[in-house]
TrEMBL record:
Gene3D superfamilies: Ribonuclease H-like superfamily/Ribonuclease H (3.30.420.10). Coiled coil: none annotated. This is Transposase InsO family protein. GO terms for molecular function: nucleic acid binding. Residues 72-237 form the Integrase catalytic domain. One of its GO terms (biological process) is DNA integration. Involved in the transposition of the insertion sequence. SUPFAM superfamilies: Ribonuclease H-like. It comes from Klugiella xanthotipulae. PROSITE patterns: INTEGRASE. It comes from the Bacteria.
Length: 248
């Protein structure tokens, strides 16, 4: 229990630990898992309330909401959600942008920077996501909140240039970008607060690189029936006989 818990950032609660030990080949019940976790003195992590990090600009004509809080997708590359969070370091704030594919909860693009400027943060995450999926985002709806950071004119134009459809939610309403907010909250709970304090933005960037790999390839997601994003995506393409892009 201690080994498996530590191998997964020490964040799993009873449900995920139960699913994990079963994947490891152990025949074990959920109550027994809880008892053994207590004996091993390990427990799950808890999340805190969200802090808003984007600055809205009501004067601009932003894309309309194409999602309307329906964060579901029938296939990969149908709906992406994006958001920004921040990390306090000894040398100032580090800002982190994530882009997540809703179908398999897979983080397809991310960026860490010491500034909120569009060119240095969300645009780099977008370009990473585009590169990881072959560069053509035709058919993708890209949804973000109403903050000026990731819905600036240059960013929206880049979304359209790649073939995706930009979408934005209501000002200051976390429910209109709930899935992206969830990714941010888990990132802060599972990595930032557990592994801090942080010295510099590059230190946060390296840790985020490792965390994103774990999130996509190893973390069990309750919404995916305790499977990983990579497993869910691979199963979809195997069933539909479509090629899988393997860039990392």
């Amino acid at each position: 229990m201690r080994r498996l818990h530590e191998a997964n950032y020490g964040v799993y609660g009873v449900r995920k630990m139960h699913a994990l030990v079963k994947r490891e080949g152990w025949e074990i019940g959920r109550d027994q898992t809880a008892r053994l976790m207590r004996l091993a003195e390990v427990q799950g992590v808890t999340r805190r309330a969200k802090t808003f990090t984007t600055r809205s600009d009501s004067a601009r004509d932003l894309p309309r909401d194409l999602v309307n809080r329906a964060f579901t997708a029938v296939a990969p590359r149908c709906l992406w959600v994006a958001d920004i969070t921040y990390v306090a370091t000894w040398s100032g704030f580090a800002y982190v942008a994530f882009i997540t594919d809703v179908f398999a909860r897979k983080i397809v693009g991310w960026s860490v920077a010491a500034t909120l400027k569009t060119e240095a943060l969300p645009l780099q995450a977008l370009d990473m996501a585009a590169w990881n999926t072959g560069g053509d985002l035709s058919g993708v709806t890209h949804h973000s909140d109403h903050g000026s950071n990731d819905m600036s004119l240059v960013y929206t134009e880049r979304v359209r240039e790649l073939g995706a459809m930009p979408s934005t939610g209501t000002i200051g309403d976390s429910y209109d970008n709930a899935l992206a907010e969830t990714v941010n909250g888990l990132y802060k709970a599972e990595l930032i607060r557990k592994r801090g304090p942080w010295r510099t933005a590059p230190e946060v960037e390296l840790a985020t690189l490792e965390y994103v790999w774990w999130w996509n390839n190893q973390r069990l997601h309750e919404a995916l029936e305790y499977r990983t994003p990579v497993e869910v995506e691979a199963a979809y393409y195997a069933e539909n006989r479509q090629p899988v892009i393997t860039r990392v």
